[in-house]
Amino acid sequence: xxxxxxxxxxxxxxxxxxxxxxxxxxxxxxxxxxxxxxxxxxxxxxxxxxxxxxxxxxxxxxxxxxxxxxxxxxxxxxxxxxxxxxxxxxxxxxxxxxxxxxxxxxxxxxxxxxxxxxxxxxxxxxxxxxxxxxxxxxxxxxxxxxxxxxxxxxxxxxxxxxxxxxxxxxxxxxxxxxxxxxxxxxxxxxxxxxxxxxxxxxxxxxxxxxxxxxxxxxxxxxxxxxxxxxxxxxxxxxx
Length: 239
Ligand SMILES: O=C(O)[C@H](O)[C@@H](O)[C@H](O)[C@H](O)COP(=O)(O)O
What we know:
The protein has 239 residues and is of the alpha/beta class. The chain is built from six helices and nine strands, in the order E-H-E-H-E-E-H-H-E-E-E-H-E-H-E. Keywords: Hydrolase.
C-alpha cells in the first residue's frame, strides 16, 4: 500500500539541507531502534552533496550507530574508481569519510574497469540479492529539470524495466553519458522515498510529478511515506 506524497517546503537551499540532514539522522536512528540495521540509498547531485555535508557536520550524528548502516546507491556515473564525478566519490568526500562506517556495509555501484555498464548493473543486482534483497529504510532522490530521478530519464527504455534490479544507461542527457541505475521496482522497495529538490529550475518538474504527469519523478512511492522535501524555489509552480 502506498500513501499520498507529503510536501515539506523550506525557505531556501540551506534550510532544506539542514532539515533533511536532521531528518536523515532521525530516520536512521529510528530504523536501528526497531530493526538493528538501517539500509539507506544515496543519490548524486549538488543538493545531495550539501545534505551529506550537513549530516557529517551535525552534532546529532552521534545518534546513529554508523557501523550498522548499509549504504547503497540509486544510481552511479559509470566512471573509473576515484573519479570526482562519481556519486560514490561525492558521498565518500562529503559524508562517509567523516563517519565511523563499516566498509563492508558500503556498497558502491561498480566502477568502470572495462567490463561494461551492463555487467556492472548485473553485478549490483547480484550484490543486492546476496544481501537478502533488503527493503530500504530511506531512499533519497534528486530530481532533474526534465523530471529524471536516479538515472531514469524521460523517454528512455529503462523506465519500462521491471524484471531486474539495476540497468545500464547509455547516452544520458545528463553527463556523463554512461550510467548504472536502480529500476523503478527497486526504488519502490523502500519504506520512505524522499525527493530532495532545490531551485527554480526544478519547479516545473516538481509540479508535473506531483500532478502525476509524465515524468519519471512521478513514479517512485514509499511503502510507508513519500516525502517531497523542497525549498520555496522548487515549490514555486505548485498551485
Ligand atoms: O547522478 C546524478 O546526477 C544523480 O543521481 C541525479 O539523479 C541527480 O540527483 C539529479 O540530476 C539532481 O541533481 P542536482 O541536485 O545536481 O540538480
